[in-house]
Structures are given as C-alpha cells and as structure tokens.
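Support reply, case 0932

Customer input (verbatim):
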Amino acid sequence: MNQARHAYRPFKAFVFILGLILPACAGIGQAVRPAPPFRTWYDKTILVISPHPDDDIIGCGGALALLSGRDNRLLVVYLTAGENGTFDPSLTTDAVRTIRKREAADSYQALGFPNAELLWFDYPDGELDFAPQLEIRRKLVSLIRLRRPDVIFALDPGGKFYRYHYRDHRSAALVSADAIGASMWPLLYPEPGVGAFRVPEVLYFYTAEPTLELQISDVYERKLAALAQHRSQFPPASDQYHPTGPPPHQKDMEQLIVLLTGATNVEHFRKR
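Our regenerated output:
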C-alpha cells in the first residue's frame, strides 16, 4: 500500500477512481452479482497473498472476518514488509519493517484470527518488479503444494482485460496468478514427495471485473479495527511516528479503502 500514500494527491486519486468507475459503468444492467458462501464455510485452510501489510485487510478483510471461527485456518504471505512506506525521515527501513510486522500481527488479532500464520518473503518494498520473479513464483508454488489451501485470496491481474496495478501491486497480482496456475501441473517445478495441487477456490480482490459481491456491513467495524492497527501507514504516524499515539481517523482509512476497492461496506471479487 505504501505507494498509495501518493495517491492522496487529487490527480492520481482521480485517475485511479476513474479506472474503477469505467469498468463498473460497462456492467450496468447486468444481473446482480452473487455473494460468495463464506458464512457457511468451516474447517478451511485459507491462503492470502499480499504485496504489503494492509492490502490484505483493505482488499478482503471483511471476507476474512466472516471466515473467522468455525475452525478455519489462515495463512498470510507478505511479499514485502512495506518498509519504505513512511514520510518520517527519522526512521530506518529496519525500524519500519519491525513496526509493520508487529502491526500485521495486531491486525489479525483485531480481525478475529489470533492464530493467523504470517509468512514474510521480505522482498524490497517498492521494487517488487525487480525482484527475481521466477524465485517468487517457485516459492509460492511450493507453499501452495505443501499447504494445499481450500481458498486463495490474491490481487487480480485481470481476466478479460489486463488490470494495470501500480508497482508492487502489479507484480504481486501477476506472480500470484502464475503460481496458482503452475501449482496444478506436476512437471512444473517438481519437488520430491510433494504432489501437484489444483486450488479449489481462487478469489481475486482489487478487481475491475468483479463476479462476486459481498456485503460486509455486519463486520465492517471489525475490518476498520483491523486496519487501524496499521497505524504507521496513516496520519499522523505516517508523517512522524511515535510508539504510542492516536489511532487513524476513520475518514483516512475509508479514503484509502475506496481508492483501492471502490466501496466501503462491500467487497468485490473475481472468481478464477
């Protein structure tokens, strides 16, 4: 999410929101999108692939809140730690990395997944395009085959049309989709004792081509509480960080949610 700080600037915000509005306008008159059956799922292994800490909560935090409990297990992969996403020049990248990892754990406590397993790939924040894509893909394929998730949440690379995300989001969307596809082919990246695996459910968020619509009004406050744990990414802590301080303003969090998803109490997904 770190580069999105710059999207607070009016022009970039206008361009981004226009990109969300135009595909939605094209779908006017179509049938109402069905809701995913999250409220009935239990004993599932859920994998989330996120470019930065907070994109997971912004993109699918409501869905995850609905999936909490009922013996569902959560595994979250962060491709970067978002360690460059601050306006405070007194901080170091190591300090921000430590802060972001603590905030991510606190976020899942607030969301209702206190036992969420968080995996950090620690590729450079803001430079995921230049990280070794084959290496990332192979690591994700290995993880998918080992953990055999029932459902994966990841950024949408686009279905009929290429979804042009900015920087780390763009790379995360593409490498996640490539890894999900590669996991089912036994001759691609074979490992002794680990079989190929076709993921039963893949749901892409930050999508411009939604096929599913989820009302999250009943868990929206929990989503906001989880996002508020990422305090270092919102004013005033994003400008001058202190270990203790006020929580983010709701308007700042909702501005970012709308910027990246187009709505607050609704989440949209494209089913692979």
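We compared this against your earlier run and they match. Two observations from our side: Confidence is low (pLDDT under 50) at residues 3-30. The first helix runs from residue 10 to 26. Please reopen the case if you see a mismatch on your end.
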